[in-house]
Amino acid sequence: MKHFKFIVFLLVLSCQNDSKKLPVLSYKIDSSGNKAPYSITYSGFTNQLNKPFNSKNIDNKVFVSNFFFTHCPSICPPIRQKLIEVANTFKNDNDFIIISHTIDPENDSIPVLKSYAEATGIPNDKWQFLYADVNKAKAQANQFMTNFRAKKDGTDFYHSSYVSLVDKKQAIRGFYNILVSKEVTRLKGDISILLSE
Known about the structure:
The protein is α+β, with helices and mostly antiparallel strands. It has a single domain (23-196), classed as Glutaredoxin (3-Layer(aba) Sandwich). Helix content is 35%, strand content 22%. The protein has five helices and eleven strands. Strands 7-6-5-10-11 form a five-stranded mixed sheet. A two-stranded antiparallel sheet has the order 1-2. It has a two-stranded antiparallel sheet with strand order 3-4.
């Protein structure tokens, strides 16, 4: 009888995990205090292969998004390693991609982004490195509820170690500090949930 109760408990727990719903986080609060939902959109970006990148590229895709620059001396290298881990976890799922936006277009030219992308060992169709002018990059960061700015000495940028998770309908469903192992585990689990929706 004890074994039967334990099996029932495991089945209930399994069903609860399978039915987990992630909240929709892409909304602003309007002047009346109501939620105003929005979808992530793209226009005017170019990827590491010098091809245009727009909203069509994220149709029916689950994706993780972050902001970086290639010569970052601090948090970007460990972030890249964690994103490589995530990319490899979902390497066989055609509905998942990673999108990284440079915040330093002055130095991160298309050839620089291409070289940086190749060094990850992840296929170009799985990981998009996007280039646009700094104003467009800032506007895109605003969609993801983040921001960045250059330090006064020009050697670095203030930017976040958080990544965003977006569903197939272009809604933000989670934020994760990619430098924290538990958050990476949570991110992988949530990606799996969205891929199965």
